[in-house]
Specification:
homotetramer; about 190 residues; mainly alpha; DNA-binding
DNA sequence: CATGAATGAGACTTCATTCAT
DNA sequence: AATGAATGAAGTCTCATTCAT
């Protein structure tokens, strides 16, 4: 109980501070004190700052993917599954603004570049869950026959920007607007 | 000629190094030597590192907006203007990968947050040029009646992601594919 | 049996690691794990790291002196006793390279300085066993009438260097060569 | 004037503190303040602490070798050259106790091990100057036909120990005693 | 304007030691 | 006696910035 507790405290503190102050605005000492532990304690759980940052990303990525899969797995009509995936994802971002900001920063940093390079070789499947959804749609002729990467971009590109704008207060995404947004995304990918 | 020269050298060196190595992977000394000037010289032109970073962003943003305006200003049918704006923007990113990476990093960092905050109060116009395009489209009933922010996201969200994927080698965006992508974006915003 | 066992394990691990990696290249945690005990356990047997280091030295010094005494005590002609002392000592170093390296490092460190300072006041005995041998030799007129310290240096100086060179692989000291070396040492001290 | 000045100040301070307090008893900050410079300044002249330590050794080694060569080069009878080399070396140590202590510690530390390893491959010639002296003596039949390493040990082993003892106050090496010591050393190596 | 040596605050990390279990 | 998670002081090194030249 005390071991995972402290590890969790540290990860939570790191998420908070790194998301809010940027990857280079939060010294280890600050993370430690925010987590209620001594500076050295972090190194009982994470080999280095880099490892902490990567492990934290991996954690969040896992949770997000779990959400997406949840929607993508359902065996319902493609259109509905698409809706589900998008709304689940968008709502997750809205509900977890810190995780969202963390992930965004991670992607647009040398960590993200390295992370992608690794995926190219070792496979990983961040958006893997949607693969089947899109492939099926293409084969059924309801989705445009475009490279998967493009379909991902058409779908998640707008959602990510809107999540950010919502978090920053540029729009208020309510239930109705979210529905209309997802419809628009569908228009983008549907044949 | 020699004064603005040095300033340009510095900005160019900063763009190179900051884009490639991340905002925190390029010390001032490295930027200076890459620019062929002494460390102290940078401070003759920029008050501080932060100012350099922001000024560099401002420069790039200006050039990108100029490109967009170029496409948006033409008094041709909305559909064509939309095409023009998108292709001009996407091609600019593809042709200027360092500027693209720089801007992406800027946005997803405390600088970006602050920058947006400033915009809320004052003005900005990053996507301003498109404002009229979309407003006109809405009033003519050819574009969905959604908040401008959403329309921006529907349009630029996919483009930005695809530019990044192209730069990183995940897709190869040729003329044909770019056309199809822009068509898909149009599907997303059109009524 | 289990208590002294653990103490021995710790001293053995400390000897290994401190000799090989230097006095500052072996953290307590490493010594502990090498000894198969927990970090805190060391402090059940040794008050501090310094105490461990000094106690370990004291142990080794005792064993080496025992060897020397063994040779020095024999009531045989001086020349033979000298031979015995030297060969016993040199062979001990060759057979116990870790102890040798440990002792060398100890001497050439602040520990050694402090150790000598203590000896100045209290006692010494490191080469004490040879005292009688040399004193007898002087009085019998077979050994040069030089200060004991000088005679020690003439005898042990070469041996120590050659032990180190042998351990590091710069020479191979076989039986014959050892004999010739000891003869040379004798030439140095004999009248 | 100011550049080499500061570098010298740093090396001098490092020699003082490292020799007196041990290689691990003198933090960079202390060396810096002892040298009258800021902590960071050391890194303008030395890449790292390790580099400083090695460079300092290299410096001292050079000065000592210069002294030895001075004695060894003279084209006088072997016996006299031997005397000259030994007395020059012993006096240098006595006159420069800090350098002596520094060198001793260096040799008996991982730095020294590494240094010797390098020499084995790349040649370096610490005691090279004496090589000819001993080789000539062997060929002329006035010096024992022993490996050079052994002859070095017979000669320098006692001198090093006595230098240390003198510095620590265990003996007082005056002109007369030094002569007698060198005579004894000669007895060790002469045929 | 330009220089670049110098600064020193502050970052990351290590590790001897403690103490509740 | 034994454990090992936790501590936090201290160490090395980086780097934005300054200032005398």
């Amino acid at each position: 109980m005390s071991k995972p507790d402290k590890r969790q405290e540290i990860m939570h503190a790191a998420l908070d501070l790194l998301a809010e102050q940027g990857f280079h605005g939060a010294p280890m000492a600050q993370i430690a004190s925010h987590a209620g532990v001594a500076a050295g304690t972090i190194y009982c759980y994470f080999e280095s700052r880099d490892v902490l940052i990567r492990e934290l990303y991996h954690d969040i990525e896992g949770r997000i993917n779990a959400q997406i899969e949840e929607g993508a797995a359902a065996s319902i009509p493609i259109r509905h599954r698409f809706n589900l995936v998008c709304s689940v994802l968008l709502n997750y971002f809205i509900d977890h603004p810190l995780e969202f900001r963390y992930v965004e920063q991670f992607h647009n940093s040398p960590y993200g570049t390295e992370h992608r390079r690794d995926k190219l070789l070792g496979r990983n499947g961040e958006a893997q869950p949607c693969r089947d959804l899109f492939l099926l749609g293409i084969s059924e002729g309801v989705i445009k026959d475009l490279p998967l990467v493009v379909l991902y971009a058409m779908t998640f590109g707008p959602l990510v920007i809107l999540a950010r704008d919502h978090i920053l207060g540029f729009v208020v995404l309510d239930k109705t607007l979210i529905e209309r947004i997802i419809d628009a995304c569908w228009d983008g990918v549907k044949r």
